[in-house]
Amino acid sequence: MSSARSDEDSVDWVGCLTYKSVATATPSARDLDILAARARVRNRSLGITGMLLFEDGCFLQSLEGPPRSLSALWASIKRDARHNHIEVLSEHIASARLFSEWDLLLDGRADSTPRVTGAAGTLPPAMAEHIARLVELALNADDQRVNAMIASFADQGWTSDAILSLLIEPAARALGDAWLDDSCSEIDLTIALSMLQLAGHAVRYSPSSQTIRNSQYRILLATAPGEQHMLGTTLLADQFLEAGWQVEMAFPDSDEALTNQMNAQHPDAVDLGLSEVLPRIGAIERLRSTVKQSRQAAGNYPTVISVGGRLFAEAAATAMSVGADHARTGLAGTSVRLAELVQKSRKL
Ligand SMILES: Cc1cc2nc3c(=O)[nH]c(=O)nc-3n(C[C@H](O)[C@H](O)[C@H](O)COP(=O)(O)O)c2cc1C
Known about the structure:
Blueprint: H1 2-10, E1 14-23, H2 29-46, E2 49-55, E3 58-65, H3 67-78, E4 83-94, E5 105-108, H4 125-139, H5 143-155, H6 160-180, H7 186-201, H8 210-215, E6 218-223, H9 231-242, E7 246-250, H10 255-265, E8 269-273, H11 284-298, E9 304-308, H12 310-314, H13 318-321, E10 326-328, H14 334-347
Parallel strand pairs: 2-5, 6-7, 6-8, 8-9, 9-10
Antiparallel strand pairs: 1-3, 1-4, 2-3
Helix pairs in contact: 4-6, 4-7, 5-7, 6-7, 7-9, 10-11
The chain binds flavin mononucleotide (FMN).
The site of flavin mononucleotide has 17 residues, from helix 2, strand 2, strand 3 and helix 3.
């Protein structure tokens, strides 16, 4: 038994797990420090490294280490009453660690100041470097190197979810920040985003469950009316197609155009995407009205309404205020979560 353990744990492969969760009570800065200090001691003894972010009432944690130790720790973390609504964003095996220098790097803010979570500067150097490199290649319109970079992460065992949530989405936000502080022009931004879009097409998704495939669910993937950034919507299209959904897309310029399309198609779910690049803080009111009209257009047909974009990635709580059934805080795993919601809505 003990030799089996050491055999499995002594190979070079490390298990990697990234999840997000919601804090059951807002921890103070001191609470977070205590949590991280205790966690570091245990992580060190288990050979686990990682990072923990706390922001806007949510935790985001990446952990990596010997698979057996990781699952023991994961069992403890999952039953910890300090958080709930735990959602695994990625789980994979890799040949090298990203956080090799940290037993647990803590980046937390007890206040609710909005922070650019995807900006390279807030991430550990290994990740920040990858994102900065991707941004640089995208700004240089170097599609070959962008694609080669994404392919090399996939070859190392990164899942599609990890590539989306740890590389492409942070890179898109970093590009948005570069544009906001005038470090790049609008045309540079547009070209760079199309590079990320191309790279996103190369991401390989793992097959979804047969149940979802057999259900032949239909989704309308739409940019929120008037939204000109379509990176999120187009990357979702690949994900949903790969998962066996029937996909329609829309880039409507008005609520009316959107609701016409909904009336014509009666999708099982509709996703309304704001920019993945810019925070669009001012878009809430308008989106609330779009959601309301979409619900009216759905009529008696049980259409699940999902919203997403950088705004929701950085302040998930905003989701509730627009009246949607679901707000994605990232692109990863959306097809699975919406399938669950559609299934649930059918049972009501
Ligand atoms: C968001 C969050 C992240 C945590 N991360 C770690 C961690 O990386 N390492 C760790 O030992 N404990 C971590 N903990 C604490 C564990 O959940 C648990 O309390 C601790 O490992 C003791 O485990 P036990 O209750 O099974 O003895 C975390 C708790 C929370 C709420």
